[in-house]
Amino acid sequence: MATLKFIVGVIGNIISFSLILSPTKTFYRIVKHRSTENFEGLPYVCALLGLFLWSYYAVSKTGEFLLATSNGIGAIIFLVYVVLFLVYAPPEIRTKTAILVGILDVGFPAAVILVTRLMIHGDLSIDVLGFVCAVLSVLMYGAPLVATKRVVETKSVEYMPFLLSLFLCLNGGIWTTYAIIGMDYFLGVPNGMGFILGTAQIVLYAIYWKSKPSANISDQLDGECQHMHLINESCED
Prior knowledge:
- The chain has about 240 residues and is mainly α.
- It is about 80% helix and about 0% strand.
């Protein structure tokens, strides 16, 4: 069973890294143009928070090296994304994003660490940390629901990239399997929901992939598209 868990964890790492590296093209564009244009920083700030807390959870729990590896490296990469966003964002957006970073990526994790280290001990500490991570993951997996709503309204998948939906589905499925093998409900529940949501997106893609939105709808959505995904590249040329 331990060998199976290790193999599933390795596959999970590969899929997770594919998701983690997916914004690279977006940030290449930001650096090239020396501007964040209309991109939002909040998804990357929130993703950094989730990756850091899952890393802390994995380190705090015995035998979760693979989970710690994927999330730890992911946290470092997303830290680079956030720094680049702050460097190239306009002053007003930079200030707002920096405040979010201070609250979500510094203040909140610090509070969680203090509570789980000083006020709660033993297995209860791991359970509380796992619950916090699970809630954050559910919220992040729920973000693409905005995209599915748009797909149904416009009958077009123009703003729901297939590869992103596919990797979200695979990522949720593989880490759910990993959680079932390791009997980790905190990891399994949010990733199970992610697998279901990812599958639903793929089904919608299969239904609407040949459809095209009207010009008016396309123009209306163009400025809103990056709000639809946690990691969204659909605004790129």
